[in-house]
Amino acid sequence: QLQLQESGPGLVKPAETLSLTCTVSGGSISNSPYYWAWIRQPPGKGLEWIGTVYHTGTTFYAASLKSRVTISVDTSKNQFSLKLTSMTAADTAVYYCGRHSQWESPRTWGQGALVTVSS
Amino acid sequence: QSVLTQPPSVSAAPGQTVTISCSGSSSNIGSNFVSWYRQLPGTVPKVLIYDDNKQPSGIPDRFSGSKSGASATLGITGLQTGDEADYYCGTWDSSLGAVIFGGGTKLTVL
């Protein structure tokens, strides 16, 4: 059964860069027809897609975050990662990784990682 | 402001039927698959419907999905107090090249 698990710091200082990793088990990122996504949810608010990466390294980013986001894939480790620069309090959220097919939203989700931005 | 429009809240009594709408455009709902999620407080969104109207294994057939043009609908029959949650629709937008979600609908079972 496919499982995704986010890992990374729970606390980030303002202006710093957030780095999160999603480890995939029970399936392979390599040569997979699926896409691998990051989604976040600020406290008390709705879901916001951050971006998606394909195993070839092709990426898609939300327009509102594009200048600050980098998503990459490491097929040798079966992981994909998120980097978000210039963090502010508005970036405080639960960050989820997920998997989706082309033309749809994620069907499989990780458990989520709470990231708080505070000095 | 979300690309997909959902009502902020709906309510109904136990045992009744409720529908939640999700309105989009030809570049998203009109041409791609819609998923529906239920999110209880503090938990991961759970897929109730995928590919417009398919249920993952383990999801009761009280939950159904439909789509017409650029709008999709989630139906829930035989409402239970445990159905109180936030519900989201999601899909891919071919013009934006992005996954998009509705703003969410809070279901209250009176």
Q: What is the global morphology of chain B?
A: globular
H and E order of chain A: EEEEEEEEEEE
Order of helices and strands of chain B: EEEEEEEEE
Low-confidence stretches of chain A: none
Q: How would you classify the quaternary structure?
A: heterodimer
Structural class of chain A: mainly beta
Question: Summarize this, please?
Answer:
With about 120 residues, chain A is mainly beta. Chain A has strands at about 5, 10, 20-25, 35-40, 50-55, 60, 70-75, 80-85, 95-100, 110, 115.
Topology record:
The complex is a heterodimer of chains A (119) and B (110).
Chain A: E1 3-7, E2 11-12, E3 18-25, E4 35-41, E5 48-53, E6 59-61, E7 69-74, E8 79-84, E9 93-100, E10 108-109, E11 113-117
Parallel strand pairs in A: 2-11
Antiparallel strand pairs in A: 1-3, 3-8, 4-5, 4-9, 5-6, 7-8, 9-10, 9-11
Chain B: E1 9-12, E2 18-23, E3 35-39, E4 46-49, E5 63-68, E6 71-76, E7 85-93, E8 98-101, E9 105-109
Parallel strand pairs in B: 1-9
Antiparallel strand pairs in B: 2-6, 3-4, 3-7, 5-6, 7-8, 7-9
Textual characterization of the structure:
The complex is a heterodimer of chains A (119) and B (110). Chain A is mainly β. Helix content of chain A is 0%, strand content 49%. Chain A is built from no helices and 11 strands. In chain A, the strands form 2 sheets. In chain A, strands 2, 4, 5, 6, 9, 10 and 11 form a 7-stranded mixed beta sheet that branches. Chain A has a 4-stranded antiparallel beta sheet with strand order 1-3-8-7, with no helix packed on it. Chain B is globular. Chain B contains no helices and 9 strands. The termini of chain B are far apart. In chain B, the strands form 2 sheets. In chain B, strands 1, 3, 4, 7, 8 and 9 form a 6-stranded mixed beta sheet that branches. In chain B, strands 2-6-5 form a 3-stranded antiparallel beta sheet, with no helix packed on it. Chain B is 0% helix and 45% strand. The chains are: A mainly beta (119), B mainly beta (110).
